[in-house]
Amino acid sequence: MQTIEALAKEKGIEADTIITAIEDAVLTASRKYYKTNENLKTRFNQETGQVDLFAIKHIVTDVEDPSTQISLKEAQDLYGEEAEVDMEIEFPKRTDVLGRIAAQTAKQVIFQKVREAERENIFAEYNQRVGEVINSTVKRFESGDLIVEIGRVEAVLPRKEQSRAESYTPGERIRAVIKGVNRSAKGPQIVLSRTDPALLIKLFEQEVPEIYDGTVMIRGAVREAGDRAKVAVYSRERDVDPVGACVGMKGTRVQAIIRELRGEKIDIVEWSEDSILFVTNALSPAKVQRVSIVDDKDRVMEVVVEDKQLSLAIGKKGQNVRLAAKLTGWRIDIKSEEEKRKEVEAQFGALEAGDAQAQMDALFPDTPASSDENIEPDADAVEAVAAEAVAAEPVAAEEKQGE
Question: In this model, does residue 161 exceed pLDDT 90?
Answer without folding.
Answer: yes
